[in-house]
Amino acid sequence: MKLSVCQLPDGLSIDHPAWADLLRGIENDRPDIAVLNEMPFGSWLASRDTFDPGLATASVRDHERAIANLHEISTAMLSSRPVPGTHKLSNEAFLIADDDYKAIHHKHFFPQEPGFFEDSWFAPQRPGFDVLEHRGLRIGVLLCTELMFNEWARHYRRQGAHVIAVPRASGASRKWDTAAAMAAIVSGCYVLSSNRASPVNDPNSNFGGRGFVYSPTGELLAETSPSTPLVSIDVDITRVAEAQSGYPCYVREIRTTSP
Known about the structure:
The chain has one domain: Carbon-nitrogen hydrolase (Nitrilase/N-carbamoyl-D-aminoacid amidohydrolase, 4-Layer Sandwich). 24% of the residues lie in helices and 28% in strands. It has 5 helices and 14 strands. It is globular and about 50 Å long.
C-alpha cells in the first residue's frame, strides 16, 4: 500500500495554490492514503494564550468546509480537526475513505508555551489510543506532541499496528526526528508525519514544515522540502512483521509492585 506525507503552509484553505499543488501531486503519485498535517486549515488557534469562543467557532467552520472537499477526493485522507466540546475544543484525528468519515483519536497531550498554548484550547472527549484498520492496514495516530511519549507507540504495536501516522504543527527541531525514529524502533511500525510550514525566512516562524517517513527499524526513508512538498512510499507489511519479531520489540515488560 502506498502512503504519502506532505508539508502545507500556515493559513491553508482549499483555494490556496498549495492545496491545488498537493492535489496534483496526489493525482500523480496515486497513494492509497495521504497524511495531512495537524488541523491544516485556517489560522493556528494556539498562538493565543486565551481561549476565544469566536475564533474557536471559526476554526471549526474552516475545517468543516474543507472536509466537505476531502470527501470528493478518491485518495483516503488522514488528518485532524477541531471539534466542539463543553468548555474547550477537541483535536480529533480522522480518516476519510470511500466518502466515509471515521473519527480515530482525540489528542491527549498539550503543550503550553509561546506559539503553542494548546492546553488553553483543547481537551479530549474521546478516551484511548485505538488502532483503525483500512483495507488490511492497521493504523495508529499520535497527534504531534503525543509522538514524544513512546509508551503509546509500544501500545500500538501491541494492538498490531503497521503504521503510526503523526499529523504535526511543530517547529523545525530535530527532536521530532529522534522521537519518530524511537517510535518506529519500539513499535516496529512505519512512522509517517506531515507538518505545517511557515513562510521561508519568516522571522516569526513557528512551524518547521518537513514531513518525513521512518522505517520500522528507525531509518529515515523520505522527507519533504519546500521544493518537494509531497513524498510517497510503499509500505511493506513483511518489514513490519520482521521488525516486530526482533529486538527491542519482542522484549516483554515485567511489572513489579513497590515494596
